[in-house]
Amino acid sequence: MKVDLLIHNCGQLLTLASAGPKIGPALRDVGLVPHGAIAIREGRIVLVGSEAEVRQQASAQVEIDAQGRVVMPGFVDPHNHLVFAGDRVEEFEQRLGGASYQEIAARGGGILSSVRATRAASFQDLVAQSRARLDRMLAQGTTTAEAKTGYGLSLPDELRLLQAIVELGRSHPIDLVPTFLGAHAIPPEYVAQAEEYVDLVVEEMLPAVRDRRRELNATPFCDVFCDEGAFNAAQARRILSAAQRLGLGIKIHAEEFARTGGARVAAELGATSADHLIQTDSGDWAALAAVGVMAVLLPGTPFGLGLSKYAPAREMIAAGVSIALGTDLNPGTCYCESMPTIIALASRTMRLAPAEAISAATLNAAHAIGRAHEVGSLEVGKRADVLVLDSDDYRDLAYRFGGNLVARVIKDGREVASNSVVLAAKVRPGAH
Ligand code: NIG
Ligand code: FE
Questions:
Q1: Which ligand is nearest to the CA of 226?
Q2: What number does CATH give the domain 2-73+376-422?
Q3: What's the pTM value of the predicted model, to 2 decimals?
């Protein structure tokens, strides 16, 4: 058959092929094909396997020679707070001097300081700052990313952030999956009136968010920051059940700082994912595993805060919980855009084998945002989102850190970044 593009001479082709999310020992199987090749037509994978097999069936107009290096699916970042204005480097320095994240938040800094900066920024500026982050994500191999709102905290401000996500999704090669996080913090207008703010989220914000699904080209997820100093488990349950009734997918920030019951709410409601999960116990793991809630682990966050406790990933894997990795990119706890950095951290701080971390950052991450039918592995029919690494051993992704091993990024069958330089704008406008 005639194809548009053949990527050949792949020394280690990692397909990550799998019928469902990877759980337990399957996490260690990256579907390695030595001397592999991929044939691509109209932005999708039509053949994948050994070079001999693929060449027998396909002739291509254009070929990319991978020069014996690692070829793998693009990273999927399933948890990030992409859209914000400004930064909080002052708070970072205060924390180095001994102040805690919670102390800074209690005196009006923290999330609320980013809310002030984000509300004050022009739409154009907000989009431009977020687009620069997307460029750095793409250069490090992220080809699909979730994007949360949550620095608006009023109906018009939250809708403006959703509109920024629409604009970025249309114009940037990275495919975005929108998440509404109106319940990220209690806004200044509702101090000591948390229940009234929850009413606003449930009665006004959620229906308006649902009505934006056409512009967003996707049904958004709804997320809640359930923790001490944020929303409690009962409030999270109320918001997420209302979101479910409107047909939205649901996620939750659970047990990041304190164990307040968010993981059980996720299990009870059958959330797509529960994220952070640092302060969890064996009962929580069993509940998540029983329902198949994806555990999105974010080791960049304790690292970013200089804390020493990480999610108990090994225990979770042993308990049959399916795990994914994300950046948690945000201006407060973790200003990190790089999935390879997260893989390097995950292997050291949570004892993930390189193969486990790669499975969690690709296929399982795609499951965590409901996109595994499209991306996350190199399988026939999926989008041709492919990385060529500057390495012939995939374990280098965990072993070597601080540089950028992602040499070439192919999105929907077209090269969009090369040696850390972004080359192309959106491949197929509006495509999802
Ligand atoms: O995932 N925990 C809530 N949200 C972020 C922090 C956001 C911020 O500090 O701006 C997190 O850590
Ligand atoms: Fe987060």
A1: 1
A2: 2.30.40.10
A3: 0.97
